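User: quick one
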Amino acid sequence: MKTTTALGIDIGGTNICCALVSDEGELSFEQNFSTKNFIEPSHLVAQVYETYVALIQQNNFELAGIGMGAPNGNFFSGSIEHAPNMPWKGIVPLAKLFAEKFNCLSLLTNDANAAAIGEMQFGAAKGMKDFLMITLGTGLGSGVVSNGQLIYGHDGFAGELGHTIYDYNGRPCGCGRKGCLETYCSATGIVRTVQEWLSDETVITYLRNEENLTAKNIYEAAKAGDALALKAFDFTAEILGRKLADAVAVTSPQAIVLFGGLANAGALLFEPTKKYMEANMLFVYKNKVQLLPSLLKENEAAIIGAASLIYHQLKK
Amino acid sequence: MKTTTALGIDIGGTNICCALVSDEGELSFEQNFSTKNFIEPSHLVAQVYETYVALIQQNNFELAGIGMGAPNGNFFSGSIEHAPNMPWKGIVPLAKLFAEKFNCLSLLTNDANAAAIGEMQFGAAKGMKDFLMITLGTGLGSGVVSNGQLIYGHDGFAGELGHTIYDYNGRPCGCGRKGCLETYCSATGIVRTVQEWLSDETVITYLRNEENLTAKNIYEAAKAGDALALKAFDFTAEILGRKLADAVAVTSPQAIVLFGGLANAGALLFEPTKKYMEANMLFVYKNKVQLLPSLLKENEAAIIGAASLIYHQLKK
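Assistant: Done. Structure below.
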């Protein structure tokens, strides 16, 4: 008897990672490619085909489908649409290209939505029907699950919590507006916070000596008791807690799962975020919403999430 | 052959309105009761039974079910839960009481959710799968529809957009917090805006002569060209537009339907709200989201919405 597998592909501006993922969330035959090697998206399709088709046959796998997570990925069209950091410009119908080549179910969505589906299939949100997924990386990505379904919206672009506004006179955002949540609450956001404070030359902190300030430096300084770094986590958590309380008022989730660079700070981020979230919550939601760390391994989550699109679809 | 009908009940702190609603959204046999007449909820059930059972038989109707809209109504439990303005305190399992007495499907939700379902069945959102319903009455109520389903959340209390925060140092809200959207964008909110401005005694406006300032007075003054009243609509629209742009980033709806007292101001509210919403929208959503007036008659909408719960459920 053949073993069911799904091919998960995590597409980024720098790297493309692929693996076969079992229906229990286990990875095998992982491969990494440099995105810039593929001048045309069809070259990627050809490379993946060459890498995996023989392998699938030899190992007696049955391919249930191909799931992809990509920046600006649209589930409805199966396309990457105008992704600023990808070498392929315009609208790239990647799911269609894979479906034609492999002759199997091929689905694509954005990274945060794929993470949400992965968390629901194999991670912290297993068995939940209503939760929010928040990815705290370079930006703040989000996936909204309600009634057991990912909310794509009428155009496939729902779930941009990172671009709700925290401060209308706030920090310039890459989207062209001001004060978006992700300019404060992300790995990049906490670095901006510290950089702003360092411009006051009287501030004493270990971080002043860092040549290349990163969220990881700030985390390590905070763990070592650096007051400025600790204050930066508290500041980030206050804004995140406030905006999560607002998000709860829209879809009333059972849990909020935090994933990615900044979420790895653990209690340093989770404890104050939970405190500020509860302090800002409407009374009907108070002490009902769990704030959970992702249960997927950071280096596997994106591929597992992508492959989960297939398993989630087959369950319907 | 019998004609299908649903009994719609709109429950408020002052009045309770009932009617039979056809599967085309037409009302018949409307009845109004004073809420204070019913010391116990079971008295209401007995009164409605007495009023409608014979009537349903005589007119050869088949009762598909009873739908109710009520403040703090929870769809999952079928109960009114701790509604501050109702004579019945605590948790009132009204859907269960009706189901037992009538032996039929009985469903209950809050007013704004009922309005959303009504709008989807018979009104401005007919045929839509993703939209937001906003009711601008004493407060700001909301119903969120995604993938053709009302989003109730894990506890039945989703959709409190009126209690997302616009200004953390803003106006005190009845919920105990500060700066909730509904303290600005509601019939009560626009009155507060004008009252705040009137405290500056140099301001010239017709509205200074009003004994009992209402949203309707402000609307009429604005229509007559009163500068302060016009500015109050623009101020309200700016805040509403900004927060609607944020809400769009969560569920990416095809349309936003505005209903209730303040929405009756028509172009005075819709035009600036649309302008500010677009100005604050993330680029992926720009010029995609319709801002629509409700197509339900104001005096019928709550009953039609309540009855629609039944028709919507039967369609599943």
